[in-house]
Structures are given as C-alpha cells and as structure tokens.
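User: Let's play a game. I give you a shape written as tokens, and you guess the letters that built it. Ready? Here's round one.
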C-alpha cells in the first residue's frame, strides 16, 4: 500500500513485486485480498493497481489532528531532556505555537499556546523558513531585520543559517528573541503539513547539553516522519 501511495498513477503486479521485494505470486494474493476490501482497485483493461476508495473512508474515521498525533513524541522528548517542548507552524512571518509541553522542574520555560514570535529569531521559525523558496523569503524577511535583542542575527547571517538547516543542521537560536533563553528545533514534514518541534531552555543549560539536545531532536524527527511523514517509510 505504501508502494501504491508513492505511485498514484498505479503500478503493475511486477512493479509492486520489485519495489516490495516479494514474489509476484505473494503480491497477487495480497492484492486480491486488498481489492476485496476496496483498499486497492484495478486500473481497468490496461492492467495495474492503485489505492482504492475505502482507504479514504478509513482515514476519515481516524483521528487526524496534528496535536493528538504529535503529543506522545512531545511528551517523550520533554521527559528525556527535562525541558519544555513546543510544536509550531509558520503563519506569515511568525512562528505560531500550536501545542506545548512544559517541563516539571524548578527553573523552566513557560510560554502560552498560540503565541506568535518573529520566525527569524526562533529556532522553530528558522526550521520552517528554511523550507521556503527564495522568492518567499525575499518577501517575508525585511532588510535589515528588526533587532529584537543584541543577539538577533543580521539578514545575511540568517540566510546562511537557513542554508545550513536545509543541509540537515539542527536550527538554533541563543537569546535572539528573549535574552537568556535559547532553543533548538527540527522541521517535521507530515501528511498534515509542515511543522517544527523545538526544545526551549535557559541558554546556559542548552549550550551545556547542545549535542544531546540535537541528537534527541533528530531522533524525534525520524520517529515522527516514519509514522506520519509525507515520504514513504523505509523498512529494514
């Protein structure tokens, strides 16, 4: 079904067998069972198969709310690092927090759901900006960028950072929005849209544990996108 989902134009039995690395006879039996439940359908006289109409019905009957889907990963990440975690999306030139988990510790970062912050001064926003085409960035990012703190990056520095994020670097900011606070974030490319998940902490703690924060975020990204990503999950 993943193979068919990645090829909406349809696939022949031979093509499916090659992609999933199974004998054609095995694929034929599986396709026959799926076709009986309308989970796949034939392409007509020309042969081949594509995903069927019953799949849409199943999806509509399941919970497709991004907050519900991401909550377990947020809780796990927050517990692992003992820091506050948030999920954001891009609204214009702002990073909009759609959900959060606040760490249960003495000195913690607390921020409201629904808060909007300049995307260029947050790790969440940078992770989302990095996915935009150049013409969109030109429209969203004024030159010069308004300085929110002494650490707010200049436009040229920000564009360089966005290039590094596109190459796979974890997005970061240190006191660029609020002095004394830092954040690290990764983008999440899900079938419900593009989001970012970030860890927010006092600068001293984040800098001290920078590598462990980055690894935890990358692991979380891999888990989320394997479960609900747009791309076909890779199996061992």
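Assistant: Ready! My guess for every position:
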């Amino acid at each position: 079904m993943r193979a068919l989902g990645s090829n909406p134009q349809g696939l022949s039995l031979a093509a499916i067998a090659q992609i999933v690395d199974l004998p054609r006879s095995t694929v034929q039996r599986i396709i026959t069972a799926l076709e009986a439940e309308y989970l796949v359908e034939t392409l007509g006289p020309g042969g081949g198969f594509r995903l069927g109409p019953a799949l849409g019905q199943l999806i509509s009957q399941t919970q497709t709310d991004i907050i519900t889907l991401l909550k377990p990963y947020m809780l796990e990440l927050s517990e692992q690092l003992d820091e506050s975690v948030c999920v954001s999306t891009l609204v214009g030139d702002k990073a909009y927090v759609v959900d959060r988990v606040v760490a249960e510790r003495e000195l913690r970062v607390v921020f409201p759901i629904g808060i909007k912050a300049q995307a260029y001064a947050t790790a969440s926003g940078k992770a989302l900006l990095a996915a935009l085409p150049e013409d969109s960035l030109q429209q969203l990012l004024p030159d010069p960028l308004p300085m929110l703190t002494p650490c707010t990056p200049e436009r040229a520095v920000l564009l360089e950072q966005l290039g590094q994020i596109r190459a796979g670097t974890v997005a970061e900011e240190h006191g660029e929005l609020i002095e004394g606070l830092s954040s690290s974030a990764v983008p999440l490319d899900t079938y419900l849209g593009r989001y970012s998940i970030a860890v927010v902490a006092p600068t001293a703690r984040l800098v001290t544990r920078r590598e462990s924060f980055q690894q935890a975020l990358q692991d979380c990204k891999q888990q989320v996108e394997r479960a609900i990503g747009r791309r076909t999950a890779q199996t061992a």
